[in-house]
Amino acid sequence: MNINNMITFEYQYIKKQEDVRKHIQECEGKHTQQAIYSTFHDAITQICYGCKKIRTTIITTEQLNTTHL
Ligand SMILES: [Zn+2]
Question: How far apart are CA 43 and CA 46, in angstroms?
Fold first, then answer.
């Protein structure tokens, strides 16, 4: 695998769906992005290649272990 072809995305947990939508609107027209709606989680995930960030309302188990809810 050529390492130059790899992009590292930063995981960003966002509590509210509307806040993810705001980020999607801000990146729209500027960045290449994908937005995914998960019916199972009732969650929105934005993958932005410009910001190199994954913004999601899905909390990972990793996050759960480090965050005291
Ligand atoms: Zn962006």
Answer: 10
